[in-house]
Amino acid sequence: MQVSIIIPSRRREHSLYRLLHSFIKQTPVSMEWNVVVVGDRQSCWTPEFVGMQFHWLSFYTCTAGGPASARNLGAMQSTADWLIFVDDDCVLPPQWLQHWENVFNSVPKDVVQIGGPGRPLSKPAQYSAFWYLVESGFLTKPVRLNDRIECIPTLNAAIRRDVFQKIGGFDSSFKFAGGEDSDLTYRLYQHGKVEYSDSTYLYHDHDRSFLNILEMYFRYGRGVAHHIKIRNRPFQEGMFIAGNPFKIFLLLPLVVRSGWQLSKGILCKNYLQISIVLICAVGQSLAYQIGGAYEMIRRKVIG
């Protein structure tokens, strides 16, 4: 069995270098594997530099399009049975390849896509709203609609290469990060089943500011609006694919806990803590909805 790991990278040389070093520490596996990095033209590192450090890695440059086009270019270089897509701000635990090998050896033939978790790389020194959203599963669980997985985030996702080629890979009309993975999962369902494996986890760097969170969910909203438009899906489904507003109720345990601590006079800072978390959660939900509305209006205006 052969596996290719595809990594799109854009101006995050330090993160990419950290990720590539985590491949060196992998537990040996029997399957053959290689790594394909696709960088943008603004990258300041060269193929020669990377090649000297990692003999199992190949490097390509994608001069147009967003991460969807970059992943497609990387997949074109592979002849493997499976493609695993990983983001450049991730770090692999030593057994990551071994866990994927175990999954590939046992997965039914009708399964065409498998997702894995992205656990937080580190907990910030100060309690942050984003950390709670990650810790509670607000941002790390596969998105489901009517018990069907609607989106496998491509920060850690495996796809059968032959099926990936059959559907034409990622839709390159997605010019930015957001919605292209939902669109891919939607089209893969026409060729088989989609599953999720908790054992294939990796670590994801969630070091984001509040403004970064809003910008990220604005993109998600735009991307999902684009997806439901080109696939002729009901608009209400798009409200849940990547930004289910009702998930805000995941914050209720924190509200109750902080309220109890405040009533007992335990650490008044909890009042500020819960306020920040609620603002963050409401903000990300609004940013998602605004992004979707913006994309719908933009498409109406430009036709």
TrEMBL record:
Domain Glycosyltransferase 2-like, chain residue ranges per copy: 4-167
A Pfam family annotated for this UniProt entry: Glycos_transf_2
Keywords: Transferase
Heme as UniProt keyword: no
PANTHER family referenced in this protein's UniProt entry, alphabetically: GLYCOSYLTRANSFERASE, GLYCOSYLTRANSFERASE 2-LIKE DOMAIN-CONTAINING PROTEIN
MF GO annotations: transferase activity
Protein name: Glycosyl transferase family 2
Tagged with keyword Transferase: yes
